[in-house]
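Extended Data, panel c. Modelled sequence:
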Amino acid sequence: MTPKELAGALRRQLNPRRARWQKPAVLVRALGLRRGQVVAEIGSGPGYFTPRLARAVGPSGHIYAVDPEAAVLSVLRRRMARVGARNVTPVLSRDDDPLLPRGRCDVAVLINCYHHMHGRVAFLRRLVAALPKNARVVNIDWDEETEFGPPAKRRVSRARFLRDARRAGLRLVADRPVLPHQYFLVLRRAR
């Protein structure tokens, strides 16, 4: 990622107007997180949701903020220090592996990031392998119909994501109408 690309991504991801359409408080509430839970925030970027997730799980909980861009994680570290979030660990992932500690996360959350991934099914397989049996995976990404978000050709449809998820050993447990421009899918391990 060039410095110019990084600056543009940070501007988009941290734009205060994003709250109008992203509805971060509604989204975090819909995740149903509890104090003490451990959350893998896949594709955390510079931490738009990270402080909100950290507050939701409280000081006894923990957030693994996973992103494949070292420069973005540097921004996240500075932002978490500024807001005093001490229960966040940045994790530099690979395109095909979240590099999470095994068996630690109660929930893995992917927000607006699946359509950016290259090795999608491989990544999901490694994510599932790193999670305990009863963990939830929540994918929030762009509806095909909305005018917001990336160009239509870059989006991953709900049906395509669910095919990938099945191949990775996940099954759908809920498809919730939480956000106006994005689907909100809750999955668990199939076996």
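The chain has a mean pLDDT of 92. This feature is highlighted in the accompanying rendering.
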